[in-house]
Write a structure and sequence with these properties.
The complex is a heterodimer of chains A (about 325) and B (about 500).
Chain A lengths: L2 H28 L4 H6 L6 H10 L6 H13 L13 H36 L4 H15 L2 H15 L22 H7 L3 H38 L2 H8 L4 H38 L5 H10 L3 H29 L6
Chain B lengths: L2 H14 L9 E6 L14 H7 L7 E3 L5 E3 L2 E8 L2 E6 L13 H12 L19 E7 L3 E6 L6 H4 L8 H12 L9 E7 L3 E6 L20 E6 L3 H9 L5 E2 L7 H6 L3 E7 L2 E7 L9 H10 L2 H7 L5 E3 L22 H10 L6 E8 L3 H13 L2 E8 L1 H8 L10 E7 L6 H8 L13 H12 L3 H18 L2 E14 L2 E2 L15 E2 L1
Parallel strand pairs in B: 1-10, 1-11, 15-16, 15-17
Antiparallel strand pairs in B: 2-3, 4-5, 5-7, 6-7, 8-9, 9-10, 11-18, 12-18, 13-17, 13-18, 14-18, 19-20
Chain lengths: ~325, ~500
């Protein structure tokens, strides 16, 4: 892909982000509920004190004025101060982002590592017991509510078998000097196998819960596309040439069969962001998803606006990556 | 075997081994929500206060039966209706080793009460919790004098909501630095705050011992205390059952049996400070008639709902005040469950065929509201439950005198200080914030205003008893119950009991 194409795609981000910020701002402004009222809770308070609190949060100005201020500051990378944390929103988000990235990556890796072999085996042994199991399993995988499945895993592995911890990212004893802020990576870079094992024990259940729907979808996609590819002429030709079945499947069929899998995976990674909100709550995972949900409930406008913008950028970039991967895997397609 | 293989093998092995041994001296609380900030003056959130309170002590504090005790003050006295003197202890250290002085106390209170004192033109969001404080100054060495612009007997009840900070430290790190660093005088010092995950604290070895009135007066019992954030209640219960944590808050009623039946864990309850009630919109023609309001009160079987839906974890109330509150009127008769009487009252009011109404409720209390609605419907008050989001409902019902829409509202009001003023004034005074019924009784208003500045404690208690009787006679609300706060704890835990203000002070808590 040429550089101009890349720049063109990046420039397309500008109207998208502008649109998203307008929509988010308007939605937050229109949602009933007043952050000051929520903060005061069940207290009697004088009108002056209430006005003072509103002024301190910058809520005394009319909506259009607030929007322009927000936009002007956002362009300069200032997303405002969180109403509750009383610190810059970018700082609060940055603290929670690595946990979400780490969880999503592990979930993605787990999903790819299980779904592709499963899908391939299901396809080449079509109608076998294994194929049926994979089909039923993937149906269950997409339809099980993550919330329920997570708690089930907790009850089994943490409460009954006592093998894994219930919540958190790492035990407090395993302190690692951060490099990338991804604990699994940092512990390896620092040569701390104990900390790596500890972090892995914490991440395994949330990652399985988060990755399950994706595993299910990718298994089905891989199976279907593998079946289609196996019916194509060039595979028949390869078989007719007398190539070993192994060679036909892994060298000739798989590469083409994976094209849809990879692009679906890239797009589905975006949906991991949504799944994070639930999984992070169930497993007390200190990520961004949970923070955003909590912030929506208490009408923490600046934080929600910045986080949604971040989600939008991520989503657009993931789609972009999916497009690029598609062209790499399938040279017939051009962007 | 490649290095990667070896790493993976070792990791897999390590994964299979048990969790790192938890020392007996480490107390972990599975807690619903992370602190917003560590700055005691820059938040407006109960959970934040619960966490902070383990690292910061206050001028005054409460024990688990809500009794007020001097903490960093040795003693205090009311000099006049508007002047209080607090004699501050000597020899108390902040965690950084500097000595706490009366100057720090005065600075703390000024930082909260003075406009713009937080820096950048910002005022502490806790200002309104300090009432009409006019000035705070140090007089005679270690005495801090608080002067009010008008009498406010609530000051001692409200001071435990504030924690003392070091003036030097605040000036050094600024309000930004205060958000993530803690230098208090409390029994634990901050080790690390892993945002969203846990707050790790260690025993402060130079602790002065805490309030004289709350023994033992000593350093904390456990070496380390950790608040681990687990927002989902099912997961919090799982963490307790698996032994990962030793105390959990907000144990859901449906998990009580599970925790009780598990060996090694038990349930602890305490009456909370939140009164539940149904507001009937008195601006509405139907509910303007007291007979209709009385009919609603007679139609609800509170005991049945407490027993069946709340698992017995609530105490019925006949007035707005909690059974534990100061000034509670114990003579109130209340309205018995009597659906026939309800139908008679409706007929007398001109509705022999009953009425059609809606009951607004927040999603969390839908089940309870539905039970209430079916009881009401049985008595001829055909009730539809309408579930709304919390903040939307407060906007609709807390109109401060502006016209209201809606018939009935299932709601509640919390009163962390348990002083009657904190709940009576906002819910019953004409046009007050929480007066969702639109109730207006000038006589009651006058009485509440008088009680607010009455400095004789016994007189004041009597006034609130009279006020409760007045309100009960007018029945603007159906007073329902005060739920208990339910905690799950490990049987290894001793020296800790839940407190109605939902604080979790770990100073005296021990683990065997």
């Amino acid at each position: 892909m040429s550089l101009t194409k890349l720049i063109e795609r990046l420039l397309q981000l500008v109207p998208v982000l502008l649109g998203v910020s307008v929509i988010v701002f308007i939605m937050m402004a229109l949602t009933p509920g007043d952050p000051v009222e929520i903060m005061i809770g069940d207290q009697n308070i004088s009108a002056e004190q209430e006005a003072q609190m509103r002024r301190d949060l910058g809520l005394d100005e009319p909506v259009h004025q607030r929007f322009l201020t927000f936009l002007g500051n956002a362009v300069q990378g200032d997303f405002g101060t969180s109403f509750y944390h009383r610190r810059p929103v970018s700082e609060v988000i940055a603290e929670r982002l690595p946990a979400t990235i780490e969880l999503s990556l592990v979930a993605l890796i787990l999903a790819l590592a299980t779904s592709i072999p499963l899908g391939v085996v299901a396809a080449i042994r079509k109608n076998s017991v294994l194929d049926r199991l994979a089909t039923v399993g993937s149906l269950l995988g997409v339809s099980l509510p993550g919330f329920w499945f997570g708690i089930l895993l907790l009850m089994l592995f943490a409460v009954h078998l006592q093998l894994l911890p219930v919540a958190g990212r790492i035990s407090y004893q395993s302190e690692i000097e951060p490099i990338t802020h991804l604990l699994l990576v940092d512990s390896l870079l620092r040569g701390r196998l104990d900390a790596f094992a500890d972090a892995a024990r914490h991440i395994i259940l949330p990652a399985i819960t988060l990755g399950l729907p994706m595993t299910a979808i990718l298994t089905r996609v891989t199976r279907t596309s593998m079946l289609e590819v196996m019916r194509t002429d060039y595979i028949t030709f390869a078989e007719a040439k007398g190539l070993s079945r192994r060679r036909v499947i892994y060298r000739h069929a798989l590469k083409n069969a994976l094209i849809p899998t990879v692009s679906v995976a890239a797009i589905e990674t975006g949906s991991l962001l949504g799944g994070n909100m639930i999984v992070e709550t169930v497993f007390g995972w200190p990520g961004l998803g949970r923070l955003v949900v909590e912030s929506i409930f208490v009408r923490n406008f600046p934080l929600v606006q910045a986080a949604v913008l971040l989600y939008a950028v991520t989503y657009v970039m993931l789609n972009f990556i999916a497009d690029i991967l598609y062209t790499v895997l399938n040279p017939r397609v051009k962007l | 075997m490649t290095k990667l293989h070896r790493t993976l093998m070792v990791s897999a092995l390590a994964l299979c081994t048990a969790a790192p041994a938890v020392s007996a001296q480490e107390l972990v609380v599975g807690f619903t929500r992370d602190a917003d900030t560590l700055d005691p003056a820059n938040h407006r959130n109960r959970e934040t206060e619960t966490v902070i309170r383990n690292m910061f002590d206050g001028v005054l504090t409460r024990d688990s039966s809500m009794e007020i005790h001097p903490q960093l003050a040795e003693s205090y006295e009311q000099v006049s209706p508007t002047v209080y003197d607090f004699h501050i202890r000597e020899g108390v250290q902040f965690h950084d080793g500097t000595e706490m002085t009366a100057g720090d106390v005065a600075f703390t209170l000024r930082r909260i009460t003075e406009e713009g004192a937080m820096g950048d033109g910002q005022t502490s969001p806790r200002q309104s919790l300090m009432g009409p404080v006019e000035s705070v100054e140090v007089v005679e060495g270690n005495t801090v004098r608080v002067t009010l612009s008008e009498p406010w007997p609530l000051l001692p009840a409200m001071l435990p909501f504030q924690e003392v900070v070091s003036q030097d430290f605040v000036e050094e790190v600024g309000t930004e630095g205060m958000a993530t660093q803690a230098n208090g005088t409390g029994p634990f010092e901050l080790v690390e705050w892993r945002r969203g995950d846990s707050i790790i604290m260690e025993r402060f070895e130079d602790y002065y011992g805490g309030a004289e009135g709350i023994p033992p007066v000593d350093t904390a019992c456990v070496e380390r205390a950790i608040f681990r954030i687990i927002p989902e209640s099912a997961s919090r219960v799982a963490a307790l059952l698996s032994g990962d944590v030793h105390i959990i808050n907000e144990l859901p009623p449906h998990s009580v049996a599970q925790v009780e039946n598990n060996s090694g864990t038990e349930v602890m309850t305490v009456n909370g400070t939140r009164s539940f009630f149904i507001a009937m919109n008195m601006e509405n023609e139907i509910f303007d008639d007291i007979r209709v309001r009385q009919a609603v009160a007679h139609a609800i079987d509170r005991d049945l709902i407490i027993d069946r839906i709340l698992g017995g974890n609530a105490e019925a109330i006949n007035g707005i005040l909690s059974p534990d509150a100061f000034g509670k009127n114990d003579e109130l008769e209340g309205y018995d469950y009597d659906p026939e009487r309800a139908q008679e009252l409706l007929a007398e009011a001109g509705y022999p065929d009953g009425i059609e109404v809606t009951l607004d409720v927040e999603g969390a209390f839908r089940d309870t509201a539905q039970a209430v609605a079916s009881l009401l419907t049985d008595a001829g008050i055909n009730t539809q439950v309408s579930v709304g989001e919390g903040t939307m409902l407060t906007q609709q019902w807390r109109t401060e005198g502006e016209p209201k829409t809606g018939d009935m509202y299932f709601t509640s009001w919390g009163n962390g200080s348990l002083d009657p003023q904190g709940i009576f004034v906002p819910t019953h005074m004409t046009d007050a914030r929480g007066n969702s019924a639109g109730y207006a009784n000038p006589e009651l208003d006058a009485l509440l205003e008088e009680a607010a500045v009455e400095t004789d404690r016994a007189e004041r208690a009597e006034m609130y008893q009279e006020a409760e009787a007045m309100a009960a006679a007018d029945a603007p609300y159906v007073y329902l119950w005060v739920p208990q706060d339910i905690y799950g704890v490990s049987t290894r835990l001793s020296g800790w009991s839940p407190s109605p203000d939902s604080r979790i002070n770990l100073h005296d808590a021990c683990l065997d």
